[in-house]
Structure formats: C-alpha cells, structure tokens
Amino acid sequence: MSPILITFYFLAAITLATAFLTIYSKNPIHSAIYLVLCFFSIAGHYLLFNAQFLAIVHIIVYSGAIMVLFLFTIMLMNLNKENEVHKPRITRLGAIVVFILMSIVLVTIFINSKTIMGEYDTSGEDFQSIKTLGKILLNEYMVPFEFASILLLAAMIGVVLLSKKEKTEKK
Amino acid sequence: MQVLITIVSLGVFCLLAEIFNLRKLLVPVTVIGLLAILGISLNLWAIDPSIDSNYASMIAVDKFSNAFNSLFIVLTIFLVALSGDFYKEHQTKISDFIAIKVFLLAGAVAMVSFSNLAMFFLGIEVLSISLYVLAASKRLDIKSNEAGMKYFLLGSFASGIILFGICLIYGATGYFNVAEIKDLSSGAGIPVWFPIGMVLMIIGMLFKIAAAPFHFWAPDVYEGSPSITTATMSTLAKVVAMATLYKLLSGLSSELIPTFEMVIVVVSILSMTIGNIMALRQDNVKRMLAFSGISHAGFMLMAILSLSTAAGTLLYYTAAYALAGIASFAVIIAVTRDSGNELTENFNGLGKSNPLLAAVLTASLLSMAGIPIFSGFFAKFMLFSDAIKAGYLFLVIVGVINSIISVGYYFKLILAMYTKEASAEKPAVPAVYYLVAVSAIVLNIALGLYPSLVMNLLN
Amino acid sequence: MNNILNQIGIENYIFLSVLLFCIGVFGVLYRRNAIIVFMSIEIMLNAVNLLFVAFSTYHQDAEGQVFVFFSMAVAAAEVAVGLAILVSVFRNLGSIDIDNLKNLKG
Amino acid sequence: METNLALVLLLSPFVGFLFNIFLGSKVSRNVSGAIGTLTVVVSFLLSICFFAQLNQNGKPFEIALFDWIQVSNFKLDFGILLDQLSLLWLLFVTGIGSLIHLYSISYMHDDENMHKFFAYLNLFVFFMITLVIGSNLLVMFIGWEGVGLCSYLLIGFWYKNQPYNDAAKKAFIMNRIGDLGFLIGMFIIAALFSTLNYTEIKIALSAGNADSAMLGLAALCLFIGATGKSAQLPLYTWLPDAMAGPTPVSALIHAATMVTAGIFMVTRMNFLFDLTPDIQHIIAIVGAATALVAASIGLLQNDIKKVLAYSTVSQLGLMFLALGLGAYTVAVFHVITHAFFKACLFLGSGSVIHGLHGEQDMRKMGGLRKAMPITFWTMMISTLAIAGIFPFAGFWSKDEILMVAFEHNKVLWVVASIASIMTAFYMFRLMYLTFFKEFRGTEEQKHHLHESPSLITIPLVILAILAVIGGAINLPGSMWLNHFLEPILAAKHEAHHLGTQEFMLMGIALVGAIVGIIWANAKYIKGGFVPKEDADISGFNKTVYNKYYVDEFYTFLIVKPINSLSNFFRTTLEPALGKVVFSFGTLANGIGTQGKKLHNGNIGLYLFVFVLGICAIITYLFIAQ
Amino acid sequence: MDVTTILLLLLIGSIATFFAGDKLASKVALIFSLGALGLSLYLLNLLNQGANISYIGEWMSSPKVSLAFKADGLSMAMVLLTTALTPLIVFSSFGNSFNNSKNFYALVLFMSFAMVGTFLAVDGLLYYIFWELALIPIYFIALIWGNGDAEDRKKAVVKFFIYTLGGSLFMLIAFAYLYSKAGSFLIGDLYQLELTGTEEFWIFLAFFLAYAIKIPIIPFHTWQAKVYQKAPTVGTMLLSGIMLKMGLYSVIRWQLPIAPSAAKAYMPILIGLSIAGVIYGSIVALRQKDLKKLLAYSSLAHVGLIAAGCYTLTLDGLSGVVSQMIAHGFVIVGLFFAAEVIFRRYETRTIADLGGIRSQTPQFTSMFMILVLASVALPGTFNFVGEFTVLYSLSQVNIWYAVLGGTTIILGAYYMLKMFQNVMLGETNTKVFAEVTTNEAITFVAIIAFLLFFGLYPKPIVDLVTPSLNEILAVINK
C-alpha cells in the first residue's frame, strides 16, 4: 500500500462519492457544488499523473467556466429549491437496475480483459509538460486545434441564434 | 484540405455578410461558393491526392472522402437554396443560419476525411452541435425546443459513448492516427480494450444514423424541428454518419469478426422492421420520414457487411436516398410552409392543385420505396446483391419484406395527393422550391439511368 | 521519471472511469431535472478524460492529453449550447423537467 | 373443279347466313327466306352431283384445304372428305334442310326476326355440313360445336322469354359435357396415333399394336361426346327442353339432323369401336335404356312437342342400340327413315301449333282432323311409320334393329320391343288426342281453325311420301344401303336372310305395334280419356309425368351444389383469402399502433433502451463468447 | 433497325401525349400506338427475313448490366400483342372522357412501353426494371381514373400494388443471387448456370411468387377481381389483356429455363394449382353480381389453364400457351369493352340491373355474343386453337389434367352464357340502349376479325413462336 495508492483510493472515493451525490442531492445548487468537488478530485488525479497543465486547465475550464455557467443558469431559473418531483418509482428502479447492470457488464469485461500486470513502460521522456503539449498541439494537431475553433464558433453562433430576439417576435 | 478550408472560409464569409448587410446576396453567393467548392472537390480527382500531404495525418484526401464530400456539398447546396425562402421571416438571423449550415458541412467533411480520431471527434461534434442548434432554432415553438432538448440530451450522451470508445482505442493502441491503429489492430496481442472501444464508437455512430434500438430520438426530433432542419438531419446528417461509420469500420480494422457482423445484422433487421412498421401509422409526414429514415439506416447497414467492396454501393445508396429526401422535403416544405403542421392532410389534392410538386414527391417516394428506374431501386438492388455475395441471404429476404411494408406508407402519401380532395386553396409556391425539387429528382433519376456514374467513382 | 501506474495499475483507473461513467449514465436515467442530467453527462465526459490521461501515462504519450483539451472544448461548447436550449425551453415551458417534454411522441 | 364445288357445297349456306345476318333486315321477309332456302338447295343439288359421281366411280373425294392446328407430333389440315357416309348424311341433311327452310318461310312469316331465324338455320346447315364432310375429327369437332351453337341460338330464338333462354343454355352446357368427352377422346387418339385423320387412324389401327385399354378409353370418351349430342342417358334431358325453339328448329335440329351427329360419329369411327367390344356393350345398354326410359316418359306427356321429343330420344336410343351391336348400317338406316318421319311429325305438329296460334297442350286440342286434313294425313302416315307398321319406312328400319338385338342379346331385344310398343301407344295417343274427338280449346281458337298454307303442307307431303317409301333403300333382299356403305365399314354386317326366324320377328314386332295402337285406341277413343290437369296427376304417373324427376335430381346433385359452392366461394372464401393478404397489413399496422406506445416521447425511456442496447451488444460480444 | 425503336417510339409517344394537352392527347396516343404497331409489324417482317433486330449495348459495369433486347419469335409475338392491343384500347376509350386526359394517355403509352420492354429484355435486371415500371402507370390509372367508392378503390389498388411488388421483389432476390453466381444478368449466361437442386428450388420459388401473383394463380389471385372492378376499363384491359401475359411470358422465358429441374420436380403441384385455378375461377364466376368481376374471375380461370400449359414443359403446351395468351388478350379486352359499352349507356355493371338489351341493339348483341363464344373457345375462334393445344399438352402429361382442365369448357360456357342471358336477353329493358357507335363497332370488329382469322389460320403465329420455344425447351431439357 504505497502512499500513491492510498492517495488514489482516497481521490477515487471522493470522485465517486461526489459524483454520486451530484446526482442524488435534490437541490441543484448542492449538485453543482458536489460536481465542482468531483472535478477537483479529478484534477487531483491529473496531478497524480503529474499532468499539471492539464489539471489546471481542467479546473479553469470545468470549475471555472462550465460550472459557473451551470450555477448561473440555475440561479437564472431560480431552481435552487428542492422542488423536483421524483421520477416514478418504476423508472427510478429501472435506472438503478440499468446502472448496476451496466457497471457489472463493463467491469466484467475489463476484468476479463488481459490486464497488464508488472512493469509499465517508462520512456523517461517528457510527454506532459506544457512545452511538449504545446508543440504537439500546434504542430501535429494544428488542424484539429483550428477546427476546435470552428466548433466553438459554431457553438457561439448557435447560442446567439437561440437567444437572439427578433423584431418580429411578439414577446 | 482545400475543401475544408474553403468551406470554413465560406462560413466566415456568411458571418461577415451580416456585418456588411449583404443579406439579400447571402444565399446566392453561398450557393455559388458551394458550387465552386464542389468544383474544387471534383477537381481533386484529376490531380494526385497525395499532393495534399501537409496535413495528411489529420485529413486524408482520397477517393472515398472526395466522393462523399462532393455529395455533401451537393446536398448542402440544395439545403442552403431552400433556406433562403424558409428563413425569410427571420432576416436578422439568416446569416447565422446559413453560416451554421456551412459549418455543419465543414464538420461533415471532417468526419469523412479524418485520418486522426481527433478530427473525427471534432467533426462529429461540429455537426451535432450545429444540428442541436438548428433543431431548437424556432425558439418560441415548444416543439422545436423539445426537439432540440431531446436531441441534445441524447446526442451528447452518445458523444460520451463515442468518446469513451475513442479513449479505449487509444488505450489499446496508443494512437489516434487511423493508419497506425489499423496496423496495430491486425497484429496479435492487442488488448480487448480495442474491440470494446470500437464497439462503443460504433454504437455512438449507430445512434447518429438512428439505427434501432438507438433510434428513439429520430422521430421526435424530426417532427419537432423546423422542416429545413429535418431535411438536413434526414439527408445530410444521416448520410454523413453512415459514411463515417463505414469509414471508421473500414479504416480502423481490416475485417469484422463474425459475431460483430451478427450484431450488425440484428441491428439492421431491427432498424428496417421498426422503422417501416412504425412509419405505417404516422400522420405527420416528417415523423413518417423519420421512421422511413430509420429503416433506410437499416438498409445501409447492410453495406457494412461487405466492408471491403461496398463503398461504391454505399455512396450510391446514400446519394439516391439523400437526393430523394431533398426532393421530398423541398415539396413538403413548399406545401406545409403556411400550415404550421406537417400532417398528411396538407397533401390532399396536391395532384390536382400542383401536379408538378405532386409528381416530384411521388417520384421521390417511389425512389425511397425502391421502384425502378429511380435510383433508389438500384441502390437497394446493389445492396442486396452485395449482401447476397457476402452470404446474408436471410438479411436480404428481411430487407425485401421490409421494402414491401415500406410501400404501404409511402403510398399513403401518394394516395392522399391523388385521391383526396384539397381542403383549402394552396398559395403559390416560390420558384426555388420547384428548382430544388426538380433538380434533386432529376439527379436522382439520372443516377438511376446511369448508375455507373457513381458506382465507378470508388472502384 | 517513474511511471505512476506501476503503483496504481491501469486497471484501477479503468474501473474508476467505468464506475464514474456509469454513475453519469445513472444520473441521466435517474433525474428529471435537465440541469442535473447535463451535469451527469459532464461526469461521463470527465470519466473519459480521466481515462485518457491514464492511458496517456500508460503509453507515455502526450497525444492523450492533447485529446483531453479537445474533449474539454467540446464539453464547453456542448454545455453552452445545451444551456441555451435549456433556457429557451424554460422560457416556453416554465420548467426544465425532462419528463414534461412529451409533446412529441407516437 | 371438284374442290371448288365442294367449297360451294360447304359455303353456300354460309353465304346465306352472311346475307341474312347483315342484309336480312333490309330486304323483305320473303326474300330473306328465299335466299336462306336457296342456298341450302344449292348444297343439296351439289350433294346429289357428288353422290352421282361417287356412285359412278366409287372413289371418295378427299382434299386438304390448308394447315390448321399444328402440335408437336402431328399437323391437322382443314380437310374435306366426301365418301359414302358423308354423302349419305349430306343428302338427307341438305334435303330435309331445304324442305324445312321452305316450311319456315311460311311458319316464321310473322316473326320480326325472321331474317335472323334464317341466318341461324343457314349457319346450322353450314356447320352440319362441316361436321359431316370433315376429313378429321377436329373438323368434325368444329361442326359439332357449331351445330351446338346454332342449337343454342335457335332454342333461345325467342329470347325475351327467360325459360326459353334457360333451355337454350341447358342444351349448350349439356352438349359441352359431351364435347369434353369428345375432346379427351381426340387427345387419346392423337396421342396414340399422332393423327386425327379418319383414313390415317384406320390405317394405324389396322396395324393393331395399340394399347387396348387406351383405345377403350378413347372410344368411351367419344361415346360420351355422342351421348351429349344425341341425347342419350344420362345427358338426354336437354332435348325435351330444347322444344322451346320454333318448331322447324325442332324438326331440323332436334329430330332429323343434329341429334344424329352422335350416330354419325360412331359410325365414322366404327373401326375404333369394333376393336373395343366392352364399349360397344356399354353403347348398346345405354341405347336400350334410353329407348325404354324416354318412351316411358313419352307415355304421359301432354305437350305435343314434348311427346315427339321423348320419342326422338327413344328412337335415338334404338339407333345406339344398333350401333352398340355393331350394326352400323342398320343404325344409319334408321337414322334416315327416322329423319323422314320425325321431321314430318314435327312439321305436322308445327302446323297444328300454327293453326292453334301457339297452343301446344294436347289437352286443349282434339278434333282437328277435319280442320286440318293434310296435316292429319301426313302425320298419320308418319305415325304409322314410327310405330313400325308394315310397309312404312319405320317398319323396315326398326325391325332390323330388333332383329339384330334378338341375335345378340334377348334381354336387349325385349327392352327394345317394349319401347317399340310404347312408341306405338304414345304416338297414337298423340294422334287421338290431337285429331280425334271434339275440339277442347277455346271458342275463339275453334273459330280460327284452318289448314296451313301450302308452303307448310308441301314439305309435309314430301316427307310423308318419303316416310312411306323410305324403307326402300334397304329392303331385305336388295340391301342397297348395306352395299353402299361397305367401303366404310370395316366389319361387314351380313345381310339378313329372310328366314322363318326373321319373319317371325317381323310378325312379333308388327303385332306389338298393333297392340300399342289398340291400347291407345281403347283408352282415348273408346274410353274418351283426356289426361288430367297437372295438379291431379298422382302416384307413379306423377313420377313419370315429371320425367322421373331426373332434372330435379341433376339440379339437386350438380347444379345446386355448384351454385352453393360458388356462393360459398364468393361470400366466404374469397373475402377470407383476401383477408389473409390484408392480415399482413393489418398485423403490421397493429404492431405499428402498439409501437407508438413505446415511442412515448419520454427521454428517460429512450435513454433506458439506449443503455440496454449497449449492454446487450457488449454482453453478446464480450461476455457471452 | 432494331427493336429498341419500338421502345423509343412508345416512350416518345408517351411524352408527346403528355405535352399534347388534354384535347389532343387521345389522338396523339392513338397515332403513336398505331405507329408502334406498324413498326413492330415491319420489324416482324425483318425478323422473318432473317435480319438481326436484336440490340445489345452496355449500360453499367458494376453490376454488369447490359441494355440487351433480343427479339425472337416469342418476344415478337408478345410485342405484337401489346402493340396491337394498345391502339385498340386507346381507341376504345374514345367514348369516355377523362379528367387530365394527357396524363391518362401518357400513362397508357408508358405502360405499353414498359410492357414491350419486359417482353424484349434479355438482361435480368433490365427485364426486372421494365417489369416493375409497368406497375406504376397501372397503379395510377386505376387509382385516379378508377370507378366506385374511392376508399374501396384505394384499398384494392394499393393491395394490388403492394402484393405484386412484394412478389416481384422476391424475383429480384433471385436475380441478385443468380448474378452472384453467374456474374452477369444476360439470359444466356443464366441459362448456363449449373445450380444445385436446393438452389433451383428456391430460385424457382422466388420466381414463382412473382409470377403466381401477377398471373395470378390461386391462391394468389385475391387482388385481381377488385382491381379489375375498380380500375377504369382501359386499365382493366391493359391489366387483363397484356399485363397478365407478362407473368406467363416470364414463366416461359425466365422461370422454366433457369430452374428446369425444379419445374420438373414440382410439375404436379404446379399444374394442380393452375388447374385448381381454372375450376375455382369458373365456379366463383358463376355467382358474381358485377359484370367486370365476373369477367375477372373468368380471366382467372382462363389464365389458370394457360399457366397449366406452361408447366407441362412440352412444345405443345408452350405454343398453345402463346396462342391462348394472344387469344385471351384480345377476347378479354373485347369483353371488358362490351362491359364498358353497357356501362356508358346504363351507368351500371350490376348484372341484376341489366337484361333486355338484345332487342334494342342487334349489332352489339351479335358482337358481344361472338366474344362470349370466343371466350368459351368455340372452334373457329383463336381461343379454341390455344385451348385445344393446351389441353392436348395436358393430356400428354396426364389425361386427368386434361379432364379437369377441360371442365373449363363446361363451366366456362355455364357462367358466360348465364351472364349473357342475364345481361342481354329477356324482356326489353325499360331503359333505352343506344346502338353502338361507329367507333365502338370498329373496336369490336377489329377484335372479332382477329380472333376469327387466326382461329381458322393460326399457322403464322405458331410458326413464328415455335423456333424460339424449341430453343427454350432445349435449355429446359439440357
């Protein structure tokens, strides 16, 4: 039981628990906060892998941008109440069954799969520093990088399109 | 690569047009631009594709992608041409709509030209996000909202699945590059993650092409979306997803394992059957065509079964299907643009009040039903022929039975047009609908008369 | 540098990701509140991201991490669009309960 | 030259037909009648020419006109064969035909469709000639069906009356049953010998290596054909109904000519029947049974034409009896004499009906002797002839049949004799009821009683004369007919020596006839008996009067079941079969309707199925393997 | 000069008719159809002189499909049947007025085009395409210009379409399968395929489904009566006169030579079914209340006999089948036209409402009578030649087939005469029946003249088809 392993288990437990609580808690605000926690724990995993840049970006993007967006929306809609009606019992039961089923199925296939015990490759090369990532991102992955901008542009136009009021509209 | 760049530039131009108040010119210019891009795309045949090797690790320009790109561009031309009138009430947004369509095309091009899974993923997301937006774009219409919401929820769920699949493939091989993955995939000792990843990715794609049992979104979304979006989804998006699925399978692994073929067979049968049987009882034309699209997805999946040889057939089928779809949607939009719904009753008496549109719609429905001389017939026939060669006679028989069922609902519409009396006077229809409908169906018939035109492209 | 996976084992990460992914799926199925459903999808995506990083380390390869960037971009775009749709649904319907979205059926 | 003449002989009535059908309505009735008659006379004269020529050189005239039907193993010509048999038939067909045409000019004078009547009659003669002069079975079959058609057209001539139309239809269909037999018989022969030409069949048969069972079957089938056309058991029921047609039609078609086609055919194919003794037995038995049954029904009929009709059936039965016993000449002889006196009888009855303005019920006649003397006398002569009174024609021919029967089978002889006695009885019953005692009709009819015009009486007289002297053609001793037909008949029928036995038989026959006459005399002249009204008839008489309920039996056994089957098919089976096809559609639609519940718009459900799908696929691919 | 000219002419005719406008459409259609008739006679002449009037051209390379049209005697006979009946049918409709007549006549000519194509094509896929193409025009003709209650009609017509299409699709599978074996659709290559017994069986079955529905053989006939009843008379004529023959022709041309051993093995069943159709059709026809329906069932019976002739696999059977097809084509067109003539005057086809027509219209009565007689195969009509030959061939196989099949001459006479009696005879009808017009009379006379001429002299037709039938038989018996 190395400290790293303990850390892993600790983080993993947090991740799963907060993820679960996100779903379970009735108040959307609580959900959001649990989700933030979950994201932080995932960032912890990243750090565990020594992927600092990624961890930071992750926190910035998810906790900083996406979660703020979520919270903003929740507030906008005034949803910070525990007024959600539960789904019918049968549906919830179904969801739980499916959840268990899927977990079992996926876990089973990965248990069955030939897992690699023993030594993992250690190239010793630097593969996750900002420098390396930047090089790869702007050389090999230039096209997708640019294309991602198209993605964001499209999303932006889309959001504008969805939110823009027209003169002809009555509201 | 040039194609992608020019398309994106065109998209940006559309946005700029808004700024410079060129709305009137927007649609014609975009159409012309797309035609020019089509020229570029077709021109790529003449020159050696390998010339474009700068980004070969991301975008592969080969016959397959070229052919499908050209098809997508053609479809987009039609869709954009229809948009001009469709969005005439929304002048302030028209450039956004057009731009999104063009970006959607860019995503589509990325999807069939990818040689790196990153491009694939981004492409599919560009396409999907554009479609989510378009589906929900009638912002005051509850149905449109609902459609957008449903599509978004299910679509992003599917994206998650696809991403998971990509991840596992990466885990198994350590590459995103298609060529490398293919090399490794045929080698021994590849972890089981790889097939799992493949399966998850394919499931995600099956969702995109709306194959059963991942098809549930399609009818609801098709019905709720604005008609032009439905047209886009049922023609362009479906064709793109199908081509991508084919490319994924043929690009990532050398051949399918028999059990997986079994899965495809079952999914194909399910899609055909569910699609056709459900379509029988639909009153809403768009919903009916959604189910029809599901069944066509089932047919197209047959192409997967003879993976190494079916590219031409698939191209032909998709072209035939999409052109018929465009033609029928041009008519559907033209007929229902003022009525606010798309019930079959709108088509009553169309044979008398507007014979040309009725004829086009009839022709396109016949094509979808697979009646000769329309290209839909050859498409189905070649598909069947390939499937028989691959040894799936049973599947073909199911396909044939489904073709028979499909006639039932296609003809329901035809019957409405020719045997029922029109309830109300139909206002005049702008010429652009005729233009699009007729040229699409003419293309369709031309493909029917000279199937070699398309068939030989990929052989 | 030592490969951290020597101490944890890739399969642990796989299981973690799978479970996280499944929790995401569970959330999608379990909740009616569209926002929570969105969050669940985010959890799914994050589960995959985590696995990407794990595999990246496993292969000692940067591409996996690069991919995570794209994945994040996608997630951001999706959330933006999704929330925009959500807002317009909310405006029209006054609720974001996905079970109320039953106009389209049959 | 001969070919042309033969063609003229054949086509002359056809020209008459064409003229009358197309132009008949435009010319006067007399012209159309005259043309109709003349064209038949032309044929008659030409027949005489050919007959004379044949008598001179004894060589039959045969010619193939053109190729007709071709099948893999043989080719059929449209061929003409004029030999002894066909010329004999031609002579009396065209001869009697001419007389009846002549008669009809007057008889049908008041009918608005007289030209059509002549057209049909001409067409009939044309087909009858075709039937007779064909050189192969198929040409005979054309005529065979053609005369059936004309019979149909003429029985239903008064088409406004639906029962008449029913009778016509019945005649056609009953005939068609026989025709099927004929066809099948032809098929077997064609299969056996690869030809249908008489001469060739004869040659092939003489080679004698044919399968006798198949030959028997062929003969049986042909005989079934004959029973249809010649109204034998069990297909005779159409003939009495056929009396719905105008009386000349009954005389020509349903007494003298068409109904003898069966005999002609059997005689034509004698070389075949001679090889199949079993079938000959059947023919003989059927003939005798028909003779008896029909005669017995004739005993109690009250319609004058019905009596004659049953008499015809009965006489035809006798002819078949002769055929069955191999005595073809005798049968032919009786055909000819029967043609004379039966035509005369029918025409006479026509004259009576004409005189009474359409009354056919003998109960409403009587005492016409004075009013219609010529009719009475000619009919009387013919009645004596049919009854078999010496020395009228019928005596000779019928006597020969009885003699032949006696030689072969005593039972048949007894049956035939009883039939003869019955014949004598009912014929005289007819005469007594019609011509003797007082008139029983209405006053008005009585007022109008008159002898028929000369166009009607002349043919009667000619036929009556023939009925007297017709027997001369084959008097015992000279046996002209026997010699004449010798080249045709393979198995020679030796002439009877006029020995004691023969004279004795003649005597018995004569006595029998006289007994019948006396019986009738006692009942109707002395007893003054008039048949009861239909409702009063009871007991066995009623059964006989109703023709043993054979029609009802057929209706019950065949017509009703077929019709109810048809109804069942139409109302039940067809919709059910249709539903089977529709049920696929209904099923699909039903599933569609149910499926709508599945697509209930609930995202949760959609996702649920989605995830289940994933699980299923993954389980199948990675766990189940 | 080759046979494609007929196809082109008809296609151009169809287009020209469409553009001729409603007023001229019928005339233009008549001219073009007459032109096609003339052309096919000319080509027949060329064929008889030994000229090569076939055409083979490339169409597509993958799958390898050629534009192959071969005209042998059999094909030419069927083409002539089509091109002779089309002008007659068009001409017969001159007494009717149709809405949108340009569409109507264009569809008629197009259908004729497709049917001629079916008879000429010797490339499997090409043949199949024409086969299906013929279905579309008749669908619209029946649907749009049909009579009776619209809902009922729709049901019947859609059923017909789906049913026949369904059957043909199985044939398509068979072709696809054959193609995967032979690598070509050319009939010659397909003839030469060596198939195993099982393969032959399934291929035979697939073809059988297509043809049994089209012909129709019981129990696949359920579409027929209703469609005949509901379709406009022109449509009914096209269907019964020519389209049925497509199925029978195809049996001879495609089904038998490609799967001969299956045909031989299942001969009793096939002939049995066909003959059952004869008897069944006749019996059902007996009690029909609608004139057109009665004729439909009579058609079922006759066609059953023809089908039985096909499956005897003898030269007699096949040549009788061809004769009978042609004869039946003409006679049924004539009979339906008679029904139409009555309908034009009385506005009804219910037999019970008719009767008493004869006294008002001697000409029509005679012509109708002759057609009725031809339909019951009276000797002297062409129908007799066909029926005789077919029955003869049946008797060669088994005498009982001939006996059972021969019941048609009894039952046929029964229902036809009964119909004639109820429709035409009896007391003069209170409604006035105008005598036939010249146009109507011309149609009748043409049909009758044809039937009588070839009834007495069928040699030209038999000589025309025999060599090609022998070729086919050689393949069957190889």
UniProtKB/TrEMBL annotation, chain A:
Cross-referenced Pfam families: Oxidored_q3
Q: How does it sit in the membrane?
A: Multi-pass membrane protein
Q: Which family does it belong to?
A: Belongs to the complex I subunit 6 family.
- Keyword set, alphabetical order: Cell membrane, Membrane, NAD, Quinone, Transmembrane, Transmembrane helix
Name this protein carries in UniProt: NADH-quinone oxidoreductase subunit J
Compartment annotation:
Cell membrane
**Primary localisation category:** membrane
Give the EC number: 7.1.1.-
The protein's role, per its UniProt record:
NDH-1 shuttles electrons from NADH, via FMN and iron-sulfur (Fe-S) centers, to quinones in the respiratory chain. Couples the redox reaction to proton translocation (for every two electrons transferred, four hydrogen ions are translocated across the cytoplasmic membrane), and thus conserves the redox energy in a proton gradient.
| Organism of derivation | Flavobacterium cheonhonense
Catalytic EC class: translocase
Top-level taxonomic group: Bacteria
For this protein, the parts annotated as crossing the membrane are 6-24, 31-49, 55-78, 90-111, 141-162
Q: Which InterPro entries match?
A: NADH_UbQ/plastoQ_OxRdtase_su6, Nuo/plastoQ_OxRdtase_6_NuoJ
Q: What's the catalysed reaction? A: a quinone + NADH + 5 H(+)(in) = a quinol + NAD(+) + 4 H(+)(out)
UniProtKB/TrEMBL annotation, chain C:
Name its species: Flavobacterium cheonhonense
**Name this polypeptide is given:** NADH-quinone oxidoreductase subunit K
Q: NCBIfam families per the record?
A: PRK05715.1-2 (NF004320), PRK05715.1-3 (NF004321), PRK05715.1-5 (NF004323)
Q: Where is the signal peptide?
A: none
Asked if the keyword Acetylation belongs to this entry, the reply reads no
Entry keywords, A to Z = Cell membrane, Membrane, NAD, Quinone, Translocase, Transmembrane, Transmembrane helix, Transport
**EC code(s) of this entry:** 7.1.1.-
Q: What is its main location?
A: membrane
